[in-house]
Every structure is written in structure tokens, then in C-alpha cells.
Amino acid sequence: MLPVDDGVGHQRGEAKQRFPDVDPHVLDPMVEWLESPEAPAEMRWKLLQRGLWVHGVATLFDYMRARVSLPPPTLLSRVHRSLQC
Description:
This protein is an all-alpha fold and 85 residues long. The chain has one domain. Helices cover 59% and strands 0% of the residues. The protein has 5 helices and no strands. The longest helix is centred in the middle third of the chain and has 15 residues, at 41-55. It is globular. It starts with 11 loop residues before the first helix and ends with a helix. Residues 1-21 are annotated as: Disordered.
């Protein structure tokens, strides 16, 4: 199970609200869990393998930072993406 505390007394919700202005190592417990046999293989693939490769980053923290910097999808962008398939 994923840890709830970031190890320095902050709950995940607090770190989420401050992200990306948090210690990059706050995600280390999540990485450890994702690398364990306990984590679903599909989630490990999406986050630690494909996600890092697609965004050209080396860590889960950098991947998450890249994701939050993207503009939110709009209805028009979703339609455009579905027509490309």
C-alpha cells in the first residue's frame, strides 16, 4: 500500500497542494512501491517506464512536474485526438 506520510510530517494532500514546491524525494516511497511486486504491472509501466520515456525525464518527480505544467485538455482537443485515431 502507498505510504500516506511524506516522511517529514506532511500528509500527501499537503504535498499535493504545494507541488512542485516540495522535496523531490517526497515521491521516493511511491517509486519504491511501484518497483515492488505489490504494485500493478500496468501502473508501473505507465508511470516508471512509458511516462518517463515519453516526457524525456529521469525521475517520477520530473514526470509529475511535466504533467502538471501541461494545459488541461479541452473538449476540442479531445475531439481532435479522437479523429486522429
